[in-house]
Amino acid sequence: MSKSKVTIKEIAEMAGVSIATVSHVINRTRYVRPELVDKIEKIIVETGYQNKIADKERKLLVGRESTIVAVIPNIESTIYRDMVAYVKQLVSVQGYQFLVAITDNDLKEEAQVLAGLLVNKKVAGIIHAPVSDVASNYTKLIQSGVPFVCVERNILGSGIDSVEFRDREAIFKGADYLLASGHKNVLFFRESTDSTTRDERTKGFLNALEKYNINTNDANIVDVTLEKGEDDCMLAIQKALRRYRPTAVLAGGNRITLYLMKTLRDMGIDCPGEISVVGFGDESWSELTYPPLTILRRDVKGLSAKAVGMLFEKINTGVAISHDCYADVELVVRKSTKMLDNGPFGDKAAAPDSVVLTKEEKHRLKTGHFRVAISFHYTGTSWAELHEKGIREELEQFGIDVVSVMDAHFDSELQNAQLDGIRLQKPDAVIAIPADDSRTREKFQELSKVSKLVFISNVPDGMSKNSYVSCVSVNESENGTNTGRMLGEYCKENKKKKAGFIIHGAAFYGTRVRDNAAERIIKDSYPDIDIVTIRSFGEISNAYQVAKDVITANPEIEAMYVSWDRPALLTIKALKELGREDVAVFTTDLDHGIARCMEEGIVKGLSTQRPYEQGRAAAAVVAKSLVSEEQLPKYVGVQPYQVEPKQLRLAWKEIFHESMPDRLG
After folding, report:
1. How confident is the model over 557-581, as pLDDT tens digits?
2. For the whole model, what pTM was predicted?
3. Which candidate, 542, 547, 601, places its Cα nearest to that of 571?
4. Helix/strand/coil for 591
């Protein structure tokens, strides 16, 4: 075979690979296994093909067809700004010059730009984000023979090569997340400009509604005309929020996300307390907002690499050989969304700040000499201390006395005896955490006849809805989902496949909901993760042996979910004794021991209750119930707080309302 006449096709045949693979090795536009790279490069040297490559590169650097041009609507949008940077880097390393042409999203301006490029002999290829999707607007470009690839947007028609985001899948993913979180009234803001991108995103939203058997029409879709400017866009968003009164919104673009967050701020709407938000988050500020924004983040770098790779294939071979024409969009869950929770009787969770006392009610409390007792299942934790602190501080401002605080030490019989003692004290109200959902029911029923009852976390089985005022709890479904999602993301990022679950065996409503939610999110959203075993403990002290048995029987486990912090600490003790500190632990509730283990690196993530806020909420409900005939919410939900190692000190301050000590006990 003549060295001077060897072609890229022949190189591919000799290496036993596709032409695309050879192209990627030559142009370094996509990852190829090192052994294949070595094989192809050896053949290129043996056949002398490297001389042909060098000749071509020299010609490109100094003469005809030496320039790659990106034709984009603007450079204000993050996506185009980032795309330009990535494309420049990729084409420059190949010896090409790189230019950018701006169309201002105007069809006439775009036509003039393209007309100039098509007669420019230095233009080797075009990366194009078209203004329109109508093929007849690009007849000259299509017929010119100049290699081009559409990016982010597409031109409808056969033979048009493009690399796009999975827009339908992305919006479906965002809407599905909100709907799965219990939101039924979700509002979708989309750009008004006609395009395939807009159509695909709309289909994704409607598909998500259809999955949840919600009427699939455009009633909850609002068009935002970006060309009208910020003020008009924000006014349109404001009108839509007032008209539809959604519990959650999904933004269909970067600028819409920005205008939406500004509108919520100006309207004084709490996010996520009143409205959950999923936005497009190519902007760096999305992580710096308060709260940090849950986003759909596009892989702009991946899109750019695919587009450049495809363009070089066309330049080198005359055709685009790649078949994977899509870049991914990732859902990044932060803190601008919450799950809507239901109480033991299916009551929708009310926000803590929905319980408001009037000036007259506050006066009646301060002159009423009211008395409240507290019955804890256990007080030997920071969790219980913070509950009590929140309760006392809220009650004290109204002059309400705390007459006793009981600790049942997780013993239902002891709590029953203590409840008899509390009944003899004749308090006006009791705030309680049941030690057992079944065995304490009778005593709480008796107590409900003489005192108002407010429960924290769960209600004893069989108690009627009218026998207690309210139940205040962290949103346990979200608590478990947060923890399960962190485990899933850790395994996904670190290519882990095997997980184990250690859950609470007792029939507590809260822990049951939490554990089930963690398991469900893994099974629904992370199908590659195998939950090898699910083992339960009854008494907390049993968690140590359960963990030891689990790891001994299943040494392949790489990550572990444990129901809450105390059994998690015993699980960690077992892991350390077995020399398995490589197993990542995920749990709920922040305390000194768990914080120390997070600093050590064995705890990779947790979702925690807000015990101080839960205590204050319970006390506020009690206070209101003492002086008001108003129907109070039967279930008050407090949103959990997600903690990762890098945020530990900030989380500590948020939960404990004090700085984290330098040395954790």
Report:
1. 999 999 999 999 999 999 999 999 9
2. 0.69
3. 547
4. coil
Rounded (to 5) percent helix, strand, coil in the chain = 50, 20, 35
Structure tokens at 301: 């770098």
d(CA 524, CA 538): 27
At residue 138, does pLDDT exceed 90?
Answer: yes
Q: Tell me the C-alpha distance between 521 and 518, whole Å.
A: 6
Handedness of CA 479, 480, 486, 489 (dihedral sign): negative
Rounded Cα distance between 164 and 152, Å, is: 4
Q: Which amino acid is at 351?
A: A
| Secondary structure (DSSP) of 163-228 | EEE-HHHHHHHHHHHHHHTT---EEEEEE-S--HHHHHHHHHHHHHHHHTT---SSTTEEEE-GGG
Residue 620 vs residues 273, 353, 587, 639: alpha-carbon distances, Å? 18, 9, 29, 17
Rounded to whole angstroms, how far apart are CA atoms 383 and 641?
A: 14
Peptide bond preceding 291: is omega within 30 degrees of 0, i.e. cis?
yes
Using the structure block, give the residue that is written with the tokens 């803001």: 189
Distance of alpha carbon 165 from the chain centroid: 19
Selection from 254, 224, 228, 258 nearest residue 239 by Cα: 224
Angle at 573 between CA 572 and CA 577, to 5 degrees: 115
Average pLDDT over residues 50-68: 66
Confidence of residue 3 (pLDDT cuts 50, 70, 90): low
CB 483 within 8 A of CB 463: no
